Task: inverse folding
């Protein structure tokens, strides 16, 4: 039963038909993508960056510039939709949509409560990792179809980087899978909140404690997958004039922009499910033992907890972004292949040894 | 017209996806641009992933997306864009012996059709097909099929070492 049916059954006392449930899930997915994106852009990109640089940031539109987002969207929608004369029109137009679709597919596995999920995939983690790699395709399409050398360079750099950092990401998650003994995100949440540390169950067992190495590697890989500084070599605005996005204007640029921050939000959600205990609170507090015994009100509290954790993780991503200078291309590749991958392999080995011994 | 049991949602889904895959596959070989061919191939491969989902083989579908679309096609596009991909039509894409491909494709189709029909015959998937769990798949791979799995790993290892040997000039 999903949150929607729950609400309707207990509060509104109407049964939602299957098509209605599907519609509500799709709408919920759209909210789960766009709400974090907007929040991250306003709170971190507009305000936090400004404060870190000793300025106020947008102040004119609405109180404290809170309506700046609306103004920005309005601005982009008005701009002319430019298509370079020698570009490959169809691929050029499709590319931003491919990037955005991969974000929407990604959010589909994130659980927000004991019954509030979009899809309950058996191999949820695996699905998330597979779908996140689809955005590379859109970036390569954009870089190639723009008929611009800077764009192509940016696209190729992005692809090289995303391929290199996908591996440590997958390997970092394997530690979590070994410890939770499942790939299902819902079960991973359960394993963390019903778990205990040396018999003390007041905190559950959030994997950020036992899998700290995995968490750090995962966050670095996420930073690189999102092409946020210090891994923004593919975009490199001072050198490649925004890489694969150079030729995009108006609402197509807006889609790329939303895609970037929506993906940041969704990755933050996935990181909080895998390492921070997801929607749950330590089950011992209320004497819950499994998913069925969790109180129904968690379906409403769960999303709030998830959004809070998402903001925390997104804060770390943006904090790093505004603090560090850009990696050079060779440093970036060397870091992935010679540091992150060996360390994550060692993490898997140590985790499996502990799993077998304990 | 069609029998009622043929017009279930799965069959309609199968038909729509299969049609898309056939169109995509034809465009792969008829289009006059390398990158377009690769992108049509992405359509075909995602169609295959969708068919696996219809067969309740979730894990295989995700693997298909991760390996073929996320890795193979991205590397393929990366390689062609790095070397020769131009925008617009190219004349010399077709191999002069392309007609030889037609009988090979026909033969392959016949072989696979015969193999499928002879091994499954009239068997039907149960209407309430259960999604096979990842644990069951891994029990199979690391149980009865361990030896083939190891052999495959060695083949891949040899391929990786071979690629490094070929690529390194010093």
Result:
């Amino acid at each position: 039963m999903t949150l929607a049916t729950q609400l309707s059954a207990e509060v509104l006392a109407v049964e939602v038909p299957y098509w209605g449930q599907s519609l509500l899930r799709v709408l919920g997915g759209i909210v789960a993508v766009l709400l974090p994106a907007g929040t991250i852009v306003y709170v971190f990109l507009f305000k936090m960056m400004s404060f870190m640089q000793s300025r106020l940031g947008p102040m004119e539109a609405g109180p404290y510039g809170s309506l700046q987002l609306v103004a920005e969207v309005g601005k982009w929608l008005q701009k002319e939709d430019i298509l370079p004369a020698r570009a490959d029109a169809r691929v050029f137009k499709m590319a931003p949509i491919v990037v955005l679709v991969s974000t929407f597919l990604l959010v589909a596995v994130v659980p927000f409560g004991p019954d509030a999920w979009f899809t309950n995939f058996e191999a949820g983690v695996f699905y998330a990792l597979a779908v996140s790699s689809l955005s590379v395709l859109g970036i390569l399409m954009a870089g190639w179809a723009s008929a611009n050398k800077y764009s192509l360079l940016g696209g190729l750099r992005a692809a090289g980087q995303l391929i290199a950092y996908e591996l440590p990401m997958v390997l970092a998650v394997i530690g979590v899978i070994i410890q939770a003994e499942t790939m299902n995100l819902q079960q991973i949440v359960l394993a963390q909140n019903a778990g205990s540390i040396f018999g003390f169950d007041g905190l559950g067992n959030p994997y950020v404690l036992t899998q700290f190495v995995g968490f750090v590697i995962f966050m670095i890989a996420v930073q690189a997958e999102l092409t946020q500084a210090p891994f923004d070599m593919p975009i490199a605005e001072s050198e490649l004039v925004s890489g694969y996005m150079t030729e995009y204007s108006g609402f197509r640029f807006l889609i790329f922009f939303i895609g970037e921050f929506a993906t940041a939000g969704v990755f933050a959600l996935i990181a909080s499910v895998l390492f921070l205990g997801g929607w749950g609170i330590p089950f011992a507090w209320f004497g819950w033992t499994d998913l069925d015994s969790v109180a129904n009100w968690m379906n409403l509290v769960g999303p709030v907890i998830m959004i809070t954790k998402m903001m925390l993780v997104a804060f770390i991503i943006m904090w790093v972004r505004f603090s560090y200078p850009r990696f050079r291309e060779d440093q970036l590749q060397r870091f992935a292949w010679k540091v992150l991958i060996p360390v994550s392999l060692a993490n898997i080995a140590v985790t499996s040894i502990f799993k077998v011994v304990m | 017209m069609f029998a009622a049991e043929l017009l279930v949602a799965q069959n309609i889904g199968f038909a729509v996806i299969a049609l898309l895959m056939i169109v995509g596959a034809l465009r792969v070989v008829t289009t006059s641009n390398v990158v377009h061919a690769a992108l049509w191939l992405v359509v075909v491969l995602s169609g295959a992933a969708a068919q696996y989902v219809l067969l309740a083989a979730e894990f295989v579908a995700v693997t298909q997306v991760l390996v073929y679309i996320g890795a193979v096609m991205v590397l393929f596009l990366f390689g062609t864009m790095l070397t020769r991909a131009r925008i617009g039509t190219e004349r010399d894409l077709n191999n002069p012996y392309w007609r030889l491909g037609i009988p090979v494709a026909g033969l392959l189709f016949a072989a696979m059709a015969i193999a499928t029909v002879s091994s499954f015959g009239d068997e039907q998937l149960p209407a309430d097909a259960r999604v096979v769990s990842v644990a069951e798949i891994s029990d199979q791979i690391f149980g009865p099929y361990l030896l083939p799995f190891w052999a495959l790993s060695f083949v891949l290892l040899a391929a990786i070492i071979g690629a490094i040997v070929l690529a390194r000039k010093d």
Q: What stands out?
A: The radius of gyration of chain B is 20 Å. Chain B touches chain A at residues 33, 35-36, 39, 42, 58-59, 62-63, 65-66, 69-71, 73-75, 77-78, 81-82, 85, 87-88, 131, 133-134 (CB under 8 Å). The first helix of chain B runs from residue 9 to 30. The mean pLDDT of chain B is 84.
